[in-house]
Fold each of these.
Amino acid sequence: MDQIKIGKFIASCRKERGMTQANLAEKLRISDRAISKWETGKSMPDSGIMLELCDLLKINVNELLSGERIMTEAYDKRAEENLLAMKQEVEEKNRQILRMEYWLSYPALIAGLAMVLVAAFIEMPVWLQILLTGFRTRDYLYGRLDRCGD
C-alpha cells in the first residue's frame, strides 16, 4: 500500500466534502495532527477508525486502501489486492518479531547455562546450588511452555 497516495486521496476526498483537517478531526474525535500525518503519508488511519472515516468521506475501505476511486468492474480485483497487501505487511511484522525473539533468547540461554555451571562446579552451600539450578530450570520450562501455546 502506498501511504503517500492514500494520504493524497484522503486530502482530496476531505476537500471534496468541504471539510478542513480540523473539522474532520473533530468528527472523528482525534487530533488534526493525525489527519495531517495521514495526508502527508507519514501514517495510516487505525483500523478502528477506518469505517467512520470512509463514511464521512463517502468512500469505501477498498478505495481508501487503494488511494483512488474504484469502478465497479475493478472492485473485486482491487479488494483482493488490498487484502493480499495487508496480509503481507502482517506477515513481515510477524517475521520481525520472531527474529527479535530469537536474538533476545540466546543471551538468556547463555546466562542460564552459566548459572547451572556456576552452581555445579563452584563450592557453595547446597541451598544456593539448588536455587541457581532451580531458576534456570524454571526459566527453561516456562519459556518452552509459553512457545508451545503459540
Amino acid sequence: MPISTDHIRSTLNGYLDVHPEDKPGLARVLDLLDTHADLASRKEFRAHATAGAVLVGPDGRILHIRHLALDAWLLPGGHLEPEDDSLLAAALRELCEETGISSESVTSAGPDPIDIDVHFIPANATKAEPEHQHVDFRFLFRTETADISALQTEEVTDAAWLLVDALASRKLGRRVWSALR
C-alpha cells in the first residue's frame, strides 16, 4: 500500500514532538497537509515528500553520493514509489538502489527521521517539472560491512565516505554526532 498523507503527517508530527524548534521551517508543509495536498505524489509541485538515508559506516564516516542531475555530493535518497509502505522503507530502498548496498548489511537506528529538510529543486525541462521543493525525511542507518557494489549510473556518478563535518547541514551534523555517542 502506498504511503498515505496520514503516514506523512504522523511522521512529521512525531518528529516535531522531538524537535519542536523545527516547526517554523516546516509550517508550510503542515499548511499543505491541512489543505489535503498529496505530498506522496511527485506531481505535487508546491512540495512533495522524498526519503533520504544517512548511512554511518564502522569508522563513523557518512556515505555521500555524487548526484548526476544536480552535480553535487548528497545523501542517498529520492522520490517515493507506489510500492513503498513507509518513509523509512523508501529511504532504505533508495539507499540500496543508488549504491548497490545490500539491505541486509544495513540497520535502521530507529523508526523516526533524524532530520526533515525542505530544499529547493530547480526546474527540469526534460522532465517537464517546474521548480519545486522537496520535503526530505532523512533516516539514520548504520553498517559494519556495506559494500558499494553497483552505483545507479542513471542518477549517481560516484560515492564516498566523508566525515560528519562534510554534511551540508550543521543541524544534521550535530544530530548525527549526538546519535553516535
Amino acid sequence: MKKQCTEKRSFYSVMLAFVVVIGVLSGCSGKDDKTSEQLSATEIGKSIEQAVSLKEMKKQDLNKLQKLYKMDTDSVDDFILYTSTSNVKADELAVIKLKDERQAENVKENIEQRIEAQKMKFKDYRPDEYFLVDHHVLKTKGPFVFFAVSTEADSMERTFDSAF
C-alpha cells in the first residue's frame, strides 16, 4: 500500500513538473512577436531606414506604386516605396503589404517585369546600375512583398526578415 502511495505521488510530481515546464515554455513563445497581420509595411520601412541610409532616395506615393508595378492599388493594405532621386540610378525599395496574401505572386510577377525593363534600360548605358538591378532582392512573406535594388540590398533584406 505504501508503495502504491509513493508511486501516485511520483506520478503527480512528474505531472506537476510537466505542467510547469509547459507553462514556462508557452510563456517564452514570443507573444510580443508581431504576426504578419499585426505588422505594417510602414513599421518595416522605419526599421530599414534605421539600418541603412535612404538619403539618396525619394519616398513615393500610391500613384507611383501603381505606375511602376502595374498593380491594383485597392489590393494594397500598406506600403513604403523609395526610388532614386535620379533617373540614371537604379536604387529602389518597396515593402508592400497586401490585403490578401494570395495576390503576392501576381505582384511579384509585375515587379519582375519592372526588373526586366530596368535591366534593358541600364544594360549598355550604366553597367554598375545594371549589376545592382541584376542582383536585386525580391521575395514574399505572407501578405508582404519585399523588393530592393541597392548596394545595401542585403542589409535591407536582413532587416525585413528580422521583422518576422
